[in-house]
Amino acid sequence: MKLRHARAIAVFGIAVLALTGARGSGGGGCDNSSSGSSSSSSSSSGGSGHTDNDSDGNGSSGGSVSGGGGSADKASRDVTIDKCAYDAATKNLTARITVRNDNALDYDYSVTMRFSGTAATPATAVKTGIAVAAGASASAELTTPYPGTGDGSEYTKCEVASAARL
Question: Is 154 helix (H, G, I), strand (E, B) or coil?
């Protein structure tokens, strides 16, 4: 009788270990390159990274969200880059983003975008107070003055440098 109980407990222990041991995976990455421009994303803390490169031929390209493991990373995962471009009319670098709030509470977001390229002077754009209701999405446009003198084509990458829920 004791041997039967010991076997049952051992089988139960192995089943629990197998079920809980499968957790803790840091996740992977997403890379959706659909154009000739290149960009990369890395995740050093086991979070997920997302890269989305799309070019429409007008000097615009998609961007990336770099993952980590902290609470700021959770806010970064709520941000999707819809389009990055140089706006010749306003001489600004622009990024259109969508912020998705899947949480139970309403949040205001602060997002910082980084524009870069191999021959480009790095530039950043900041937008605060992006109000997103619980379970909803909001779109926003971030702009920063173009620091160059050309057509903006040297900017091949834009990414979320930081995001926070306020």
Answer: coil
Residue 21, judged by CB atoms within 10 A of its CB (0-12, 13-18, 19+), counts as exposed
Q: Could you report the per-residue pLDDT of 69-85, keeping only the tens digit for each?
A: 456 678 999 999 999 99
> At 118, phi and psi to the nearest 5?
-65, -35
Q: Which residues contact 5 (CB under 8 A, 6 or more apart)?
A: none
- Which of 62, 59, 35 is closest to 50 using CA atoms? 62
Express each pLDDT in 15-65 by its tens digit. 333 333 433 333 333 333 333 333 333 333 333 333 333 333 344 444 544
Distance CA 35, CA 52 (A): 10
